[in-house]
Amino acid sequence: MGTIRTIQYLRAAAALAVVVFHAAEKTGYDFAVGAAGVDVFFVISGFIMWVISDRRPLTPAKFIWDRIRRIVPIYWFATAVMIAGALAGLFPNLVLTTLDHVLASLFFIPVRSPSSGEIWPLLVQGWTLNFEMLFYAVFAASLLLPRHWRLPAIAGLFVALVTIGWVAPLEDALSLTYTRPIILEFVAGMILGELWLKGRVPGTVTGSLLIACSLGGFALIGSLHLRFDEWTTGPLAVLLVFGALSIEASGRVPTLNVPILLGSASYSIYLWHTFAISVVAKAGSMLGIPPVMSMALAIVSGTVAGIAAYALLERPLLQPRRTPPAAVGLTGPAAD
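Predicted structure:
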């Protein structure tokens, strides 16, 4: 769909917020509001899926295959590293007692972790991918519908699921996961995508105010320790993305190479940063490094580890195979 710079910048900011959250947590500080980067990711995911499906025809099978190719290999590799580390005794708090948990982690099925009792896969941050895969499956099915029915159908289903979770006493991990209000953030992103496609975004001044309100809300939540869940952070994430799109529509967004890189690498940063942070935090504690310096080193190392994983693993795997020049003829290679 072309590069929407502000979306790339928000992906970078969301990934860094999660990195800072985990680095602070590991070094004795508090930056819980950084976890709201996940809410921003979900809104962006809904937006991107809606826009790309509008700009090129997609069958359900093609859509799912593209998502699997994008998400699964890197996630499985990171999970395999986690399992190998646990078997080698590098992660003493990780319990590998059930094959069910391992398989559920690999195939995005929400189950409770034997290590903590939480609904977490082996690679803890992979919990968000359980929601992403639900959204992708529903979105793929919606491609069988006429375009004007897709958004209402997905929105109706997700609202129904959230309503069930609100009124029914649910206990199993699958039901608790797929009825969480956080799934509505995908719908909000799709609505923003439709507004973007129709050119119905506010002007720069209004967009700037939306961004200011969003950041101010996050700051209040973080500084005053206000209620922190998808009912508060979700709307703020929507305001942030909508405001960013308004700035994008002005056509005056500069190209900033470092944020573009961080945005492109945001998935790898998200998956791999905790490995580096854990090592740095542990080393800092053993060597007596001041906590604030350990946190700074953890942030840098987590980010660099993610960028390295993007360059060495993710990007090569996603690089499209091109037809050799001699076989192309006059038409040139197929577009990505």
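Summary: Confidence is low (pLDDT under 50) at residues 322-336.
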